[in-house]
Amino acid sequence: MKDNLQWVEQAWSDTFEKVKFTSENISARFPTMTSDGIYTDSDRLWGWVVGFWPGLLWLLHEKEDYAPFKDIAIQREDTMDAALDEYVNIHHDVGFMWQLTSIKQYELLGNEQSRTRALRAASHLASRFNINGRFLTAWNKNDVNDADPKGLSIIDSMMNLPILYWAAEQLDAPRFKLIAMAHADTVLKEFIRPDGSVKHMVEFDYLSGDVKHYHGGQGYDENSAWSRGASWAVHGFAMSYQHTKEERYLEAAMKTADFFIDHLDDDSVPYWDFRAPRDETTPRDTSAGACAASGLVLLSDLAPTEELRQRYLTAASDILASLYKHYGTYGDSSNQGILVGGTFNYPKGLGIDCSLIYGDYYFVEGLYRLKNKLETL
Ligand code: GLY
Prior knowledge:
The protein is mainly alpha-helical. The protein has one domain: Alpha/alpha barrel (Glycosyltransferase), CATH 1.50.10. Helices cover about 55% and strands about 10% of the residues. The protein has 13 helices and 9 strands. It has helices at about 5-25, 50-65, 65-80, 80-85, 95-110, 110-125, 160-170, 175-190, 225-245, 245-260, 285-300, 305-325, 355-375, and strands spanning about 30-35, 40, 130, 135, 150-155, 200-205, 210-215, 340-345, 350-355. Strand 6 (about 200-205) and strand 7 (about 210-215) form a beta hairpin. Helix 11 packs antiparallel against helix 12 (about 305-325). Bound molecules: glycine.
């Protein structure tokens, strides 16, 4: 296997060089998605994407010790304080926002202020727990469909749970972990279908806790299989197993991973929805591939047999290698993204075949994990 992963070192160093170059232009901004190769900024400081750029810089800095990346990451994290202080617009995506930034800075540099930020963010997330429905409420307003936000939960939430597991350990406060597990159990029951495909949005009655509706959300419809949602499930359940060692989360991670892998074609990068009607113009979504691949590297450490560990490692490597070779912008200095071919929101016609900062982040995270793995093989 080690021989099959030799491309990883080249991909890592090409990516480091690319980001050295693009960071001079992106610098102290919150890139979201590209238009004609130029990253547009998040129009909201509290937008769910703001942690990905500093998070990506931390991963590269950790391995390359390149101080300008660290400086930008710290500056971005400081700027995000306004969102925590404002409070009212904060939503469930505080995990994406402060896990990749503040927890990372605390781990690398021991900054106590970063630790406090992440604990505040975790407390906020815990406060979104609906006790009757046993789910984490996603948003305060809903601009995706006509669901009532008071009862809405979405599969993306699985990626936010690690900040709760972290807070439980930091404060020796199991309540954070219990909330995360109660939510994960609800997702297991209501979002994962018997075939391993995943629903995007479930609307509960916020008083009784009963399921009211399933919504297609960013997928094709309520019965389809939005590929980024599938990737959130694979990666999110793998992390819930990593933190709890509860077998049912490992089984969910493997079941959703098997669906994901079995629906890839020779390109190894998924279409935007595994079940949407398809013709020669149907876009793929490199961000779904990147997020799933990084989760699959993690799963290849956790799976119970050598055969399964190899299966997930091979799938992760195939996806990341295809992203690097077929979707990387390395020769194109006019493109600020690392990967093209991302799809943000197909039903709304937004962000089709662009670079997405979370696609770039999970691609770097996947390479980082593969690199760590190579060092131990
Ligand atoms: N979390 C929103 C998305 O995946 O587009």
